[in-house]
Amino acid sequence: MLTDEFGREVTGVRISLTDRCNFDCVYCHNEGLGDTRGPMDPQDEEMNTDDVVRFLEVVTEFDIDSVKFTGGEPMLRSDLAEIIARTPDELAVSMTTNGTFLPGRAEELVEAGLERVNISQDALDPDAFARITKSGAYDAVLDGVEAALDAGLDPVKLNMVVFSHTAGYVPEMVDHVAANPGLQLQLIEYMPELTGNPEWAIDIERVHRWLADQARVVEQREMHDRTRYWIEADGECPSPAASDRTPDAVDGPAGMVEIVDPVENPTFCANCHRVRVTHDGYLKGCLNRNDDLRPMGEMSKGEIREAFREVVANRVPFYGEYMVRTADGSWEVNDEYVDTVASD
Fold first, then answer.
1. What's CA 316's distance to the chain center, in Å?
2. In CATH, what number is assigned to the domain containing residue 121?
3. Phi and psi at residue 178, in whole multiples of 5°?
4. Which residues contact 213 (CB under 8 A, 6 or more apart)?
């Protein structure tokens, strides 16, 4: 297993299979690359099936234990089932999707080896959903969630980006997952440093505090040091004492709500164990950075192996190393660090 200079073992990879998407979400950062999306037809620069599988075969040599397929919209890849079926058995396989193509295909993907799925659903209101995603696919997403559950992808984790357009729908979404045992909710902090529009950002700590007041149990996850809140459907059960608020205290049906809050969060970065791969075959050590992309050449196993070692060796926490806090409390690029990297 490879470990970076900050002692973080790299245990998972996240692979963008395409930057194409049938949605045009206003908050999209396309795995940190910005709006690179082009025509909806397959593009020559996308890694082919063999490239993806060859990469996965190499990273198992380094004890990687999980892969998440993303996009864009990964289900626009006609070879998705083949990629999943050819993924080494050592790897747990999950996918992030908008869900619109799951009806009719979910069972095939499960048979191929898909184990978990995240589905983007930013509101339970069709009009709000349409404004956020610039699509009229609200019903198709609900059908996709149902198809995933029917295929055995239980629990289905719903992804909701929390910003000014969606914050008012958080309580309704929490109630929704609490009342439906097959669902979980992942609230993702809006990242203006990647998408612009800083006026859309909200105070994510307010969401934490609200959930803590509602929760039957509060749990801390090692991955990114994320906080999970277990909330009962009726909302009437008083929270236990702080010392009892552990997963073992859940004695009945409860919805799991998790917050992903990376912005200005050194602790989040310090607990990151993931390397990303762009749709066109570059390794990416951090979501927020595009100055450290490592090409994998012609995708031979030797080139993949060398590039993977390099990108792990050069990983840094985005906040606290690559970005540093200034005297007024804001964050800026650490020019000294960038100059050091450039001279290496």
1. 19
2. 3.20.20.70
3. -65, -30
4. 239
The pTM of this model reads: 0.90
- The reply to whether omega before 155 is within 30° of 0 (cis) is yes
Indicate the burial class of 162 (C-beta count within 10 angstroms; 0-12, 13-18, 19 or more): buried
The residue behind tokens 């996709």 is 144
Cβ-contact 89, 64 below 8 angstroms: no
Taking the C-alpha atoms of residue 22 and residue 28, their distance in angstroms, rounded to an integer, is: 12
| pLDDT tens digits for range 161-179 | 999 999 999 999 999 999 9
- Residue 274's nearest CA partner among 241, 308, 248, 298 is 308
Which range of residues forms the domain containing residue 42? 12-270
Domain assignment of residue 28, yes or no: yes
Total number of domains constituting the chain: 1
8 Å CB contact between 94 and 68: yes
Show the tokens assigned to 243: 């010392």
Beta strand residue intervals within the chain, DSSP E: 12-16, 66-70, 92-97, 116-120, 156-162, 183-189, 217-220, 227-232, 254-260, 274-277, 282-284, 294-295, 323-325, 331-333
Asked if residue 281 belongs to a domain, the reply is no
Q: Which residue type does 229 have?
A: Y
Residue 274 CA to residue 288 CA, distance in Å, equals 13
Instruction: State the DSSP H helix or E strand holding residue 187, giving kind and residue range, or none if neither.
Output: strand 183-189
Instruction: List pLDDT tens digits, range 257-289.
Output: 999 999 988 888 999 999 999 999 999 999 988
93-134 pLDDT, tens digit per residue, is: 999 999 999 999 999 999 999 999 999 999 999 999 999 999
Cis peptide before 42 (omega within 30 of 0): no
At 125, which amino acid appears? D
Residue type, 56: L
SS3 call for 114: coil
Pairing mode, strands 274-277 and 282-284 = antiparallel
Per the domain annotation, does 182 fall within a domain? yes
Whether residue 322 is contained in a domain is answered as: no
The owner of tokens 């450039």 is: 342
> What number of H helices and E strands is found in the chain?
11, 14
Checking DSSP bridges between strand 116-120 and strand 92-97, what pairing results, if any?
Answer: parallel
Token duo for residue 189: 């902090």
